[in-house]
Write a structure and sequence with these properties.
Layout lengths: L8 H8 L4 H4 L12 E7 L18 H8 L2 E3 L2 E2 L5 H10 L30 H7 L3 E7 L17 E5 L19 E2 L2 E2 L6 H16 L4 E6 L11 H6 L6 H23 L6 E7 L23 H4 L3 E4 L8 E3 L3 E2 L2 H10 L15 H4 L10 E6 L2 E6 L2 E6 L3 E6 L15 H15 L11 H15 L17
Helix pairs in contact: 3-8, 6-8
This protein binds calcium ion.
């Protein structure tokens, strides 16, 4: 990333030690005898209600539903941002991305712009690599395009994907660096459909590494725009109300199915900890649905950040469970460390919680009693059942999600006690964060502001993208 001038002297000292990530995290004295493989599967812009296991009827996801049946379905799990890049920054570092200024999506339009992961931030891949895991990132990166942002520099032994925020699912003639499919920096020329290509590589990677622990970050760009699907899948869904999304989702599911089958055939499915989630809420421009939730990708309402979320580890976690506790994508890092028996060094600050005791019923209740969101002018706080949505220079609204999951009844005037409590909680959290290191283009800032203002007043949203922009955020 380019914002070196923002780094403090402490950061610079830390940078001098870069390359010694293995020293930041010490192996616990009693590591797991048989450490599990870790797989994090991320769908892009998929709606809260758009999978069979979440009750969807018109899209078909038999393989992901099977994963859900063999694991635990979360109903109240959240990502840390309602857009792609900062959400991934939080996921892969296990801490609020606002701690290191990665707050906005950059310039948008599918490119990574000037965004980048601070050089002094440790990723999940850094830690697992230091503990002899083989690490691979597949698919969309979107965490910066400079040399030091490259996945190979951020703990991944292998990167098989593309650097930017989106691209065509089909081959591109003379692609830019950000859009080209690459393997460790070298362009890969492919035929066919990208979702299949990523799925095939995930299967091949398992074949190559089935005899050693591995960490796979499998970030499909499905079902982000552009809406492109294979002819055969479009034909299969020719009468479907959401034809393109159904076809793209089917391909995503098919490829996750290939991976699960390969793990099973290799005899390692039982000892593989798998997370499945969407990186943010369903978008307004890809036919997705967030069901009963208000808002969509880019909003601080539930539809922006509450996501479908599965945790599966057959040898340790009983299947067929639903978990309603408050959880976060931040928990993936912490949970994975615990599963692998890796004890983190005190210098590694993580905001997540180990979910395993909740899934094995050693603990009950909520992994988190509060969660926070902030993207430039919009922010939100969740404390218990209460949710505060804030808009700079406009005001805040308060909801009680236990009886108003759709966030329509603003309690800010009638419940001043909870209103003030949540404002204070938010301020306390915000005091620990730093200012964003980059913003977003003004037309997008303006439209995001307008959308929030309308939704906070339960008013109709008349436009969802700047009128003169290609709507491919
Ligand atoms: Ca996304």
């Amino acid at each position: 990333m380019k914002y070196i001038f923002h780094l403090s002297i402490f950061s610079l000292l830390f940078l001098a030690c870069k390359g010694e990530a293995s020293q930041q995290v010490q192996t616990e004295s009693n590591p797991e005898q048989n450490p599990p493989n870790i797989i994090v599967i991320v769908a892009d812009d998929a709606g809260y209600a758009d999978f069979g296991f979440m009750g969807c009827k018109d899209l078909e996801t038999p393989n992901i539903d099977n994963l859900a049946n063999n694991g635990t379905i979360f109903t109240d799990a959240h990502v840390t941002a309602s857009v792609c890049a900062p959400s991934r920054a939080g996921l892969l570092t296990g801490k609020y991305q606002q701690r290191f200024g990665f707050e906005a999506n950059g310039t948008g339009y599918g490119g990574s712009g000037d965004i980048g992961l601070s050089d002094d931030v440790v990723t999940m891949a850094d830690v697992f690599k230091a503990h002899k895991y083989k690490t691979i990132a597949l698919g969309k990166w979107h965490l910066g395009g400079t040399e030091t942002d490259h996945p190979n520099e951020r703990g991944f032994d292998e990167f098989y994907g593309f650097i930017g925020g989106g691209r065509s699912y089909f081959p591109i003639k003379n692609p830019s660096y950000e859009h080209m499919l690459q393997q460790n920096g070298k362009q890969v020329v492919f035929d066919g459909y990208l979702t299949d290509v990523l799925g095939d590589r995930s299967v091949a990677f398992v074949e190559e590494n089935k005899n050693q622990p591995f960490f796979m970050y499998l970030a499909y760009n499905a079902v982000h725009t552009p809406l492109e699907a294979k002819e055969s899948d479009l034909e299969k869904y020719k009468d479907a109300p959401r034809q393109y999304l159904a076809a793209m989702t089917w391909s995503l599911d098919e490829n996750i199915g290939k991976l699960l089958k390969k793990l099973e055939q290799s005899g390692i499915l039982d000892n593989t900890l798998i997370f499945f989630m969407s990186d943010n809420g369903g978008a307004h421009n890809n036919q997705s649905s967030n069901g009963i939730l208000k808002g969509w990708k880019g909003n601080e309402f539930e539809g922006g950040h509450r996501v479908p979320f599965i945790v599966s580890w057959p040898s340790k976690i009983k299947g067929n469970q639903t978990f309603n506790g408050l959880a976060s994508s931040l928990d993936i890092f912490t949970t994975s460390l615990a599963a692998a028996g890796i004890k983190k060094d005190g210098t590694l600050e993580l905001d997540g919680v180990n979910l395993l005791p909740y899934l094995t019923h050693e603990k009950t209740g909520n992994p988190h009693d509060k969660l926070f969101w902030r993207k430039l002018e919009e922010s939100a706080a969740r404390v218990g059942d209460y949710k505060l949505v804030r808009l700079e220079n406009f005001g805040s609204t308060l909801y009680n999600l236990s009886n108003d999951i759709g966030e329509t009844k603003n309690l800010s005037q009638t419940d001043s006690l909870d209103y003030n409590r949540l404002q204070n909680e938010f301020n306390r959290w915000e005091s620990k964060m730093i200012d964003p290191l980059w913003g977003e283009e003004k037309p997008w800032m303006d439209v995001t502001y307008y959308i929030h203002k309308q939704l906070m007043q339960n008013k109709e949203v008349l436009y969802k993208a700047p009128p003169d922009k290609d709507d491919q955020q």
